[in-house]
């Protein structure tokens, strides 16, 4: 449920509405202040008597949200959300580039790949000690504590925030202690609710991919698991984690010549349905470095807030996904051109995102 306060509503009137909802129904509110005030009710708002709320002074309208992914929905939160990782902002009118090797293979490979990624202009470095692979015979990473040590060294060497994929809940503390700035939830764990619920207890930023066969509703509902902090009784027992970044990575379709099928229309569609930052992955979707550059441009032109892509110091020798990784020089050209495309959109008057103020209550 969202409650629009009237243009002249006073702070006291807004507070009275919030008090009523928190006291009478035990739910939490999130307030967005722009020209007018909008109050979003967290939790299952079905228990609220709509009539009683709409009669309170200063209330303009009360709207029920029917989407199953309420917290991730733009109806609930009209302004773009901007997520921060250190000095880097993701979402709104920012263009943010995530890049680096698919996996940490050795200290030398990881540090070389980290340096070329930094020099190419990435904002956030991929440092993946753990890999979720389809086959157990494929490379799945070094022993975890060694992999995390190298991930920390990649961060120290470049001064960039790092993103690492978390597969196993038991490793969460070790990831955070190693200085991982952003947790990635990959396609293979994208609907694993215990993992998503655990992340709702923290405020660490999370990149959420979607499963190979997930539709938009399933993807945004997974985001709502992280964001709502909702318990089984429908009460919002805690605030939840709002720092979710969506990453589109394509789905399985009948075309076998590309690795996955990336539907470009998902970019403006998801941007219109959700306020969350949306990036896209041209490496894991196309699966081929010859395709990555133009697919990356396509995603940015379609309105993505950035991309995440594979950069490797020696793709020919990579233990994981070398075929889709680009070298430093190509990465730099792609990043420079994406930045040009992003400002060109601005110059053409095509919306690239808005920034809003959000206050928690
Ligand atoms: C990855 O980003 O390294 C990855 C494995 O991607 P996905 O989860 O989308 O397959
Ligand atoms: Mn990969």
How would you explain this protein's 3D organization?
The chain has 361 residues and is of the alpha/beta class. It is 34% helix and 17% strand. The protein contains 11 helices and 15 strands. The chain has helices at 11-25, 50-54, 107-120, 144-158, 172-177, 193-199, 216-228, 266-273, 282-286, 289-301, 328-348, and strands at 2-5, 28-33, 37-42, 59-63, 83-85, 88-90, 96-100, 124-126, 162-165, 182-185, 206-208, 244-248, 278-280, 306-310, 358-360. The chain has an 8-stranded parallel sheet. The protein has a 5-stranded antiparallel sheet with strand order 4-1-3-2-15. Strands 5-6 form a two-stranded antiparallel sheet. Strand 9, helix 5 (172-177) and strand 10 form a beta-alpha-beta unit. Helix 3 (107-120) packs parallel to helix 4 (144-158) and helix 10 packs parallel to helix 11 (328-348). The two termini are 15 Å apart. Residues 356-361 have low confidence and may be disordered. Bound molecules: phosphoenolpyruvate and manganese (II) ion.
Sequence-ordered SSE layout with sheet pairings:
Layout: E1 2-5, H1 11-25, E2 28-33, E3 37-42, H2 50-54, E4 59-63, E5 83-85, E6 88-90, E7 96-100, H3 107-120, E8 124-126, H4 144-158, E9 162-165, H5 172-177, E10 182-185, H6 193-199, E11 206-208, H7 216-228, E12 244-248, H8 266-273, E13 278-280, H9 282-286, H10 289-301, E14 306-310, H11 328-348, E15 358-360
Parallel strand pairs: 7-8, 7-14, 8-9, 9-10, 10-11, 11-12, 12-13
Antiparallel strand pairs: 1-3, 1-4, 2-3, 2-15, 5-6
Helix pairs in contact: 3-4, 3-11, 6-7, 10-11
The structure holds phosphoenolpyruvate and manganese (II) ion (MN).
Phosphoenolpyruvate binds at residues 102, 128, 186-187, 209, 249, 284.
């Amino acid at each position: 449920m969202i409650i629009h306060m009237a243009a002249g509503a006073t702070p006291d009137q807004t507070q009275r509405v919030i008090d009523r909802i928190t006291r009478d129904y035990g739910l939490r509110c999130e307030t967005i202040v722009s020209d007018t005030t909008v109050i979003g009710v967290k939790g299952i708002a079905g228990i609220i008597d709509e009539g009683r709320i709409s009669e309170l002074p200063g209330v303009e309208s009360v709207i029920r949200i029917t989407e199953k992914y309420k917290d991730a929905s733009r109806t609930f939160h009209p302004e773009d959300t901007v997520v921060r990782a250190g000095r880097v902002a993701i979402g709104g009118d920012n263009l943010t580039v995530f890049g680096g090797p698919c996996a940490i293979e050795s200290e030398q490979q990881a540090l070389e790949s980290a340096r070329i990624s930094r020099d190419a202009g990435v904002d956030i470095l991929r440092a993946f000690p753990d890999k979720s692979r389809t086959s157990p015979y494929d490379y799945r990473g070094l022993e975890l504590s060694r992999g995390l040590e190298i991930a920390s060294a990649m961060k120290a060497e470049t001064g960039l925030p790092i993103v690492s994929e978390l597969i196993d809940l038991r490793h969460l503390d070790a990831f955070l202690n190693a200085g991982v700035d952003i947790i990635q939830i990959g396609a293979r764990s994208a609907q694993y609710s215990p993992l998503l619920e655990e992340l709702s207890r923290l405020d660490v930023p999370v990149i959420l991919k979607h499963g190979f066969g997930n539709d938009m509703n399933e993807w945004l509902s997974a985001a709502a698991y992280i964001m709502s902090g909702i318990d089984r009784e429908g009460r919002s027992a805690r605030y939840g984690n709002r720092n979710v970044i969506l990453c589109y990575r394509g789905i399985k379709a009948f075309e076998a010549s590309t690795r996955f099928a990336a539907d470009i229309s998902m970019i403006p569609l998801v941007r219109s349905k959700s306020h969350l930052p949306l990036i896209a992955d041209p490496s894991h979707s196309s699966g081929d470095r010859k395709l990555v550059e133009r697919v990356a441009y396509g995603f940015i032109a379609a309105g993505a807030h950035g991309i995440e892509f594979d950069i490797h110091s020696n793709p020919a020798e990579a233990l994981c996904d070398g075929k889709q990784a680009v070298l430093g020089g190509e990465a730099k050209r792609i990043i420079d051109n994406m930045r040009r495309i992003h400002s060109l959109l601005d110059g053409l008057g095509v919306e690239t995102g808005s920034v809003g103020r959000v206050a928690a209550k």
